[in-house]
Amino acid sequence: MASASSQPQFRYTQPPSKVLHLRNLPWECTEEELIELGKPFGKVVNTKCNVGANRNQAFIEFTDLNQAINMISYYASSSEPAQVRGKTVYLQYSNRQEIVNNKTTADVAGNVLLVTIEGNDARQVSIDVLHLVFSAFGFVHKITTFEKTAGFQALVQFSDTETASSAKNALDGRSIPRYLLPEHISPCTLRITYSAHTDLSVKFQSHRSRDYTNPYLPVAPSAIDGSGQLSLGLDGKKLEPESNVLLASIENMQYAVTLDVLHMVFSAFGPVQKIAMFDKNGGLQALIQYPDVQMAVVAKEALEGHCIYDGGFCKLHISYSRHTDLSIKVNNDRSRDYTIPNTAMVNPQPSILGQQPVQMMGPGAPNFNGTQYPPNAEQAMMPQHSGGWGSAVPLVPQSMPMQMTSHPYMPPATMPQMVPGMMQMPAHTNPAQAGTRPPYGPNSMQ
Predict the structure, then answer these.
(1) pLDDT above 90 (res 196)
(2) What residues contact 101, with CB distance under 8 A and at least 6 apart?
């Protein structure tokens, strides 16, 4: 079998035509480059660029047939191949007699985007990273990933064409932010066109496909190995079954984290039904229950790795819990069932899930339990700790909405007033409605 280097530069598989088919062109070859290539042989009257799955093919049309024959004949006998940007170009007659520049599928705007991920480690970009990137522009309905001759690709479905167009215009040609990728993965660039699809078919939730509109879709058997354990995803991490209950671990606790603070933070992504706090492995953990899996997924993706307080204090690490319905036997300062209205909270005491928390306020600071709040702002401020705490942080009633400005993909249009010192969260919104396009500047994605 002939090697790739010995591949003929021209083909006679088609009868002569004034339209020539060019292959192996550089990425996004321009019309000017094609005209310059054919100029020595005659007048190029029409071109069609960036054809094919790899967008590395094109057509050029001469004024008459003899000019096209001259070009094919010259390069058939020349020791110097046709080149564009130093890359060898393969020529052949086209089976068409003229170029009709009808719009291709890639030119017709739609609600589904075809995304090609370029880079040495493109296949290691997880579906969760893609979801984070594209969710910045609106609610992502479905994502499927696959491998083609063009490389590692994904189909991303939005609710409408306008949202998809906003994402395409902002992300095409841009790199995935480094902080979203593991350290061992090299930079990856996104190339985006429109797809002819309008509604993707996702039969299973897996590391290769996801339907965010149907959290009850079964997990693909291929995502589970023979021992019944979840297999590894593309990022090398164990696939984690999604749940409506989140397990939150809090590190660097320089400030006290109360039940009301957790309720305020997690309520930004949907109604919190139950919370249970407990101490484990020398740290504070909490179980937070939502009505459905989708709300938990959105909350986990938005909050993972972020800090409740400015200065890197009270950092959240979130995973899915095996629980689906927490059993809250008593409402106190360590556990709460918000589905039972107007339930009086008993005197603070250890809950069934852990011991009484260690008080972390400075000397002289007021101690608030449950829904009791200070009468004025001065009493709410926690004094600065002599050991180097940051600025004082006020406790805020749980009815006050917050926003998280540190998350790179939270649309700014939904931001209410900020609460000094605390991580700001988006107000109660449906993920499908929080689709305002963020301000992607030239330096916003590295």
Answers:
(1) no
(2) 46, 48
